[in-house]
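Key idea: predict the complex, not the pieces.
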Amino acid sequence: MRLATWNVNSIRARVDRIVGFAVNEDVDVLAMQEIKCKPEQFPLEQFEAAGYHVELHGLNQWNGVAIASREPLEDVQIGFPGMPGFLKGHEGPDAPREARAIAATVGGVRVWSLYVPNGRSLDDPHYVYKLHWLQALEQYTRDTLAADPDLPLALTGDFNICPTPEDVGDPTLVEGVTTHVSPPERAAFQALLDAGLADTVRPLVPTGFTYWDYKQLRFPRNEGLRIDFILGSRAFADAVTAAAIHRDQRKGEAPSDHVPVVVDLDIDAGDDDDRPMIF
DNA sequence: ATGTCAGCACGCTGCTGA
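Result:
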């Protein structure tokens, strides 16, 4: 099974590029973030014509997450237990929850498409919201793996955190001054790993960014960030055989500011082309 | 140069969010 995650920054603005990538790269499951549309606005037909089922969660022009899959998507879940909401500076479990998390099971793998809140600035209510959101995600992960330690669980998406200094190529991001690199954010990311997840891409692709700001010639200067991840439980991580960051998807006409991150899994997703039959 | 995008309100421009 080939699994990819991609913050597409509007599905409607670049659906041809996205479906084309999925087909050309033989992607079985594509988790998307920032689809920026409601369900009735999602270009379903183009995915279906290419052989994909789609499950999505979109409330308005902001955020929005989706999962496309060649095999049917089972046990679809919108948001995770404890996920905080946010509205006009009011944050908490009683505030409306934004469209930032969707999960489905494909080929026995529990896949989450996650769009972690940006945080905006260290003194903004969105920053506290981001940390609470990550804390709830950690708790969900701990509870889920405590109930089923052998579950192949993948948390994929845009985490809006640079876990290490090597993940920061944009000089405007400075520890103590901006989000994405602050010790509490990095601690929140580490807490996800401590909850039983591993970065499944870094061991196979040790360097490289997944995002470059549209402004300031960030891409030509290669002043990017690594903020998009595929985190996997032990059962998931053990099945990963290859990984890639598709830097070329930042090039050309109307790119997203993020590029796809891909892993190959030695788990049967219904394909019959790479698994010997033993009788 | 706060230097680019996307979507929305409506709208031919200005706002919000990233």
